[in-house]
Amino acid sequence: MEEPLSDRDAEGGAANSRFTGCEIAPTAAVYPDAVLGKGCKIGHGAVVYPETVIGENCTLGDGAVVGKQPSLSPRSSTKREQLPPTELGAGTIVSTGAIVFAGTRVGARVIVGDQACIRERVEVGDDVVIGRGVLIENDTTIGALTRIQANAYITNYSTVEDEVFIAPGVQTTNDNFMGRTEKRHSLMKGPTIRRGARIGGAAVLCPAVEIGAEAYVGAGAVVIRDVPARKVVVGNPARILRDVPAEELLES
Known about the structure:
The protein has 1 helix and 31 strands. The protein is an all-beta fold.
């Protein structure tokens, strides 16, 4: 593996010639076999791992890390494999201290907030907002135009469709056995959140629940069963309160 571009060659050495048209801070580390589109800006202390593909006009903030292979505990249930390169779509921003792991594809014009983390084998659609401190675990799909606010936790094996809103501090879960019994591995599944659903602040979604299209989960609700489309649910355990008003629907 070749050494990354660093402060030794950032002023025009051979390695830097591969990234013509990009602004790379002297203390950034960009491996020569990474691919940077024109107009990229790479901040101080940022790391771009080998074979990572970054589209045109992307920005990596100070200390951002893109393309990192995961380090797993011997007891981890996550797959162990060499992952394919990370891909970032054009115009995407990975903010200060954020990490995007290998094997993940991020669409165009996505914003990954400060200190957020997107784990391996995640698919993120176009025009997604991922807030500060959000953690998206492995093997998860995030649809286009979705907004995930600060400090939300999206567990592995989750599906979030297009135009979903997830408020700050939302917690999702995927393991009814909480780490005990081998049976859990075959049953592990995160929530499925259908198009246009809205999840209120600090709500908790239990394993494998489905939130219907354009449903509304109130702040602090604990969802232990499926929520029908276009219904408002509140409380612990969450119960149906009423229909979502017609004027709030994406499609009438």
